[in-house]
């Protein structure tokens, strides 16, 4: 992901042009990253749930086992020690 920057130029009457760059604050970048991560997590979890339900309805045990292995990552709640 590219950094988004705002560039300001201050021209002096004498001397070289001064270039100043302002980056997006850490808090905004962190908050937006966390929001995107949560949205992706919820979308992936919902898609896996649909696939699991479809596998159950079709009686496809092999597909159910395969999808349930991937789904375990979404329901793990720190029960492992």
TrEMBL record:
Q: Which domain of life is it from?
A: Bacteria
Q: Which InterPro entries match?
A: IDEAL_dom, Virus_scaffolding_prot_C
Gene3D superfamilies (alphabetical): Virus Scaffolding Protein, Chain A (4.10.810.10)
Q: Where is the IDEAL domain?
A: 35-71
- Coiled coil regions in record: none
Q: What is this protein called?
A: IDEAL domain-containing protein
Please name the source species.
Tigheibacillus jepli
